[in-house]
Design brief:
Layout (H helix, E strand, L loop, with lengths): L10 H24 L1 H12 L20 H18 L5 E4 L9 H17 L2 H15 L1 E20 L7 E18 L4 E3 L11 E9 H9 L30 E12 H8 L21 E9 L3 E7 L9 E5 L12 H27 L2 E4 L24 H4 E4 L7 H17 L4 H10 L1 H41 L10 E4 L5 H18 L6 H11 L5 H12 L3 H59 L7 H60 L1
Antiparallel strand pairs: 1-12, 2-3, 2-9, 4-5, 5-6, 6-7, 7-8, 10-11
Helix pairs in contact: 1-7, 3-5, 3-8, 8-10, 11-12, 13-14, 14-15, 16-17
Amino acid sequence: MDQNDFEEPSESDKELTDFVVSHCDRWRDYRDTNFLPKYLEYERIFRGEWAAEDKTRESERSRIVTPATQQAVETRHAEIMEAIFGQGDFFDIEDDLKDINGNPLDVEMLKAQLMEDFKQDKIRKSIDQIELMAEIYGTGIGEIVVKTEKVFEPATQPIPGQMGQAAIGVVEKSRIAVKIVPVNPKNFLYDPNGTSIDDCMGVAIEKFVGIQKIVEGMEKGIYRKVDIGTDSDDNDLEPTQEITQYRDDKVRLLTYYGLVPREYLKQLENEGGEVVDLFPEDSVADDYADMVEAIVVIANEGLLLKAEENPYMMKDRPVISYQDDTVPNRLLGRGTVEKSYNMQKAIDAQVRSHLDSLALTTSPMMGMDATRLPRGAKFEIKPGKAFMVNGNPAEILYPFKFGETSLNNLNTAKEFERMLLQATGTMDSQGMVSQGNRDGAGLSMAVATIIKKYKRTLVNFQEDFLIPFIQKAAFRYMQFDPERYPSVDMKFIATATLGIIAREYEQQQFIGLLQTLGPNTPVLPLILKGILNNSSLSNRYELIAALDQMSQPDPNAQEKALMQEQLAMQAAQAQIAVNTTQAEQNRAEAQKLITEAQLMPAEVQAKMSASLTKNLPNEDSANAKEFDKRVKIAELMLKEADIKNKSKIVELQMNNAKSNVVDMENQFLEKLATELNYGNR
């Protein structure tokens, strides 16, 4: 690039640059005074690095950094990420079905397409880094960047003029990529008068980038062609604290998103026309009378690379942030390291004191009579070392002891660690086991408290970061890639649920409910579906679909059940008919027996009269005796007939009772058949 190709900064460039840089300098001073030293120490605590300014006392020699805060940060970070992405889809789309021709399938297509682009642009990885910085520094910040990327895809094309032959190669395509870049709070500047990104007059992101990226932007026409050079070091802008930072080929880049005076942009665009001033030029309010949303990029604190009015169709700022833990009326939040800071310092002081005391009690110190040691003797303590002395060694060498190292330091450190877990709302596995051994109800209460604290952070993330990002990304796809994303009114909903601790806790509740109700409960499918929904199985959706299919009634089974009911009703009716016939037969036999019993005395009397008068001679005394004998026999026969008649009557009464029982059974069966027939209808 020739020196003559560079654009010299104009007065308008200098005015706009001075306006942006002066505000950012004041914002930087506010941040560096109030937050930067804490941010640097928070980073060292998380990474386990020691610095001289982190001493808890002047005589401290040990440099150990205990991992209690590291564990708390990683536990909370893992739980939030599991809650966001653990169930697969982390957002859903609602639509009133009026903007997409009333076809809900288009909504699902847009959702699948958006998920595919997010996966290709590695949105999950970027959100993971943003959430981790939110746990460390208290605020998660992301910058939305729109790029046109080249994509190479394998393809096969037929060779002209040669039948049946094709060339194998690649096809170059362009795609619109919407990415979110994690922003370290050390690189973030904002208007302290604002309580949110949109409420601030402006926000800025400053960082070091390679000079080749700036030159590439100039070649593509993204940046203005100015005489760019490298900048001096600023360790506060580096992503991490290192022993030495790389110094070569770095450009300090300041990207400003916010309000600027309209006249500055008008002068840059050479549109002519003067802007009417509402306030005198010497008034403070003159610069803020007519403001416009703009994007300004400045290199090395003085070179204007880009200045334009906000190009996005929704006129929104491409920066989003959220508070890990809410601090009212402030943009920056409170992180896990800030919650655990005091207890972390107490744990480090206690453990370092213990290690310093070990140095005094473990390594012996000796008092010696220098006049009785050999000349040039070097005193060292080693196994098997022999010392030459002039006299009794017990009189020449005397060991000094400073007591014994107490274990109370470690016990106190454990108590401080418990307080740290209490302050951060986390609980390690050992703490959960010990709590559970003491009291199961206490463990449930502790887990419930932890879940509620995680929910607060999750709500902040969803409402302040996740949903705004998805909306902004969708709007940019609609603006720059309208063929794939039609401009429609969509409402995005976060589908993130609870983390692994909450899901495991709910699983135990479901299992306990299932054990209480038993396997034959009618709500068994609902309980099983809840268990599958909370599980992390890769095929849980297939299992849920199979469970739904099993719970639906089978038409063949319904038909078989209906046929069985009809057969049962027919069998009941046939049994009623058999019982009725049997009862009628019993009644006929009973009537016959009654008639026979009534005719039997008359028949006996007739037979007796005939036998009395048969073959008797007239007026013979012997015959008279025979006649008396026959009369007595007849009386006996009458008595016997009477006894038989009474037994017959008893038997008939019993048969009548049996008939009544059969009638009652028939009435019951008829009633049952009627109810079955009514149920089938």
